[in-house]
Design a protein that fits this description.
By secondary structure, the protein is α+β, with helices and mostly antiparallel strands. It is built from eight helices and 19 strands.
């Protein structure tokens, strides 16, 4: 590359860079031109959220109302059931702190594309946003926000199989600036027209369940499970038939029955529809803490949720009987513990009594164990299979009959470490003595050796003397000598105890030593 070509490339690079900067500046100008100085400031301005006593959320199809009655937020469409106070409180605080992050210059012709048209004015529901109206006690609107399309941002985890993008903000329009589209950094995903998302989800929590009785008919119990201790296993009352057994795998889950349930919504009977609670399944649950729960489960609705009603009572001891031999210090400690536990149980009872009088919609998973019939807790008894020899294993050892049949005194214990029987031990000792005697007789014949093998002959003579001494000891009824092989060699240095073990092991397969 010559100097002229290099100069040309540099000039082209500078021109392209300048053009890129110009285009980018024009784009930024399009988003920021006409700025009213709202960036970085609170979206609602100087607004006191404590004045809000009613909230309405409206989209193209539904309107949700939340109302403050006294100090309690309620859901009027759910019979005035308490709303989730913490969720509402956090939401109002977040609204007061929302700040504007962008001021794009967008004309009315683009409002539909960003879903910034009011539901009451939009011809196309897909272009309508969601109106959040903040009102006072009388229902007068204090401020409203039109929530438009979410602003998406590319996700860094997309390359690892995660979502390609996630909501990082939202286009909005405030009631006192209805011609000005703004962007906030919070997508406000918790603004929902689903009433079930706003009701208070506090529910009963059955702890330390002692027994549960279920009766679909409403008269005598269809089945009852009970246990003697808090950590014990549940037993099915009434037992089972001779060819049946309790399905223990299905009983383990009852230990946590309704221990931490939730619900999806409040059931409000439809005046024109069927009453789902006309013939409920009734269950009684007793706990080791003295609580009693009466649970009624109706028929499922079209969405598969079951209506449930709950009644709660409890027998809470009011006094404590001192134990015998209790010191003053022990009494003070135990009285304090008793008072603390009593207060906890009374608070629990007061809180759970609030669920009475309401009908809750819960998932099938929450109450499916209460829908079991007695037959669901029983299964056929498994037949015990007779023990049979493994495939390829035979008990015929070529004796014309089963091993050991007709052979008196035979030890069938094939454990290699098992000691021989007394009869086998006597036979082994006699056989070892005879074998040693034969070996001595053979070794007494003179052997001609060369002069250079005198040392080896001397070793053999010493071995013969040792064998003779062992035979003499065996003939006196002492421990048997080590077994000698046909060459006259012996296991030198092995004591009589280890010899007996080795001989005993050998007799598992043969009782006659080689001569």
């Amino acid at each position: 590359m010559n100097r002229k070509q290099l100069t040309t490339l540099l000039i082209v690079g500078v021109v392209i860079g300048a053009l890129g900067l110009f285009i980018k500046s024009r784009q930024n100008a399009g988003w920021t031109s006409g700025s009213s100085g709202l960036m970085g400031k609170e979206l609602l301005g100087d607004f006191d959220v404590n004045q809000v006593a009613q909230i309405e959320i409206t989209d193209a199809d539904t309107t949700v109302q939340l109302k403050k009655t006294g100090d309690v937020w309620t859901v009027p469409a759910r019979g005035g059931y308490p709303a989730d106070f913490k969720k509402l409180g956090d939401f109002l605080i977040k609204l007061a702190e929302l700040k504007v992050t962008q001021e794009p210059t967008i004309g009315p012709s683009q409002f539909g594309r960003l879903q910034l048209q009011k539901p009451s004015e939009a011809e196309d529901p897909e272009k309508a946003g969601t109106v959040l109206s903040l009102q006072d006690e009388s229902g007068k609107e204090l401020k409203s926000i039109l929530l438009g399309k979410e602003q998406m941002r590319e996700s860094a985890g997309a390359q690892f199989g995660g979502p390609a993008s996630y909501p990082a903000g939202r286009y909005v329009m405030v009631s006192d600036r209805e011609d000005k589209a703004l962007v906030i950094s919070d997508p406000l995903s918790d603004v929902s027209v689903d009433l079930g998302e706003w009701v208070n989800k506090d529910f009963v929590k059955v702890a330390k369940l002692k027994s549960v009785s279920v009766n679909p008919a409403g008269d005598n119990p269809n089945w009852t499970l009970s246990r003697a201790t808090e950590t014990g296993k549940f037993e099915l009352d009434g037992g089972v038939g001779p060819d049946e057994q309790v399905a223990t795998s299905k009983l383990s889950g009852y230990s946590y029955l309704l221990s931490s349930p939730s619900f999806n919504d409040i059931y409000v009977p439809d005046s024109e529809g069927a009453d789902l609670m006309s013939s409920p399944t009734v269950a009684s649950l007793d706990t080791f803490e003295g609580f009693q729960y009466r649970v009624k489960v109706g028929e499922p609705n079209t969405e598969g949720n079951y209506p449930v009603q709950v009644e709660v009572s409890a027998d809470i001891p009011q006094t404590r009987e001192p134990e015998e031999g209790e010191t003053d210090e022990e009494k003070e400690t135990k009285d304090a513990e008793f008072a603390e536990e009593k207060e906890r149980l009374e608070e629990k009872l007061a809180k759970e009594k609030k669920v009475e009088g309401w009908t809750y919609l819960v998932s099938k998973y929450t109450i499916d164990k209460l829908l079991n019939q007695r037959s669901d807790l029983i299964e056929p008894k498994e037949e015990e299979e007779e023990a049979t020899p493994a495939a390829g294993v035979t008990t015929d050892f070529g004796l014309g009959a089963e091993a050991g049949a007709g052979i008196p005194g035979l030890n069938l214990n094939l454990d290699p470490l098992a000691p021989p029987t007394p009869a086998e031990k006597q036979e082994i000792m006699q056989s070892a003595a005879e074998a040693a005697a034969e070996s001595v007789t053979i070794e007494e014949e003179p052997t001609q050796v060369e002069d250079d093998a005198v040392g080896e002959t001397g070793s053999e003579s010493e071995s013969e003397n040792e064998n003779t001494e062992v035979v003499e000891e065996a003939s006196d009824g002492s421990e048997p000598a080590p077994e000698a092989d046909s060459a006259g060699e012996t296991n030198e240095g092995v004591d009589s105890d280890s010899t007996e073990v080795e001989v005993g092991e050998a007799t598992a397969e043969e009782t006659t030593p080689e001569s």
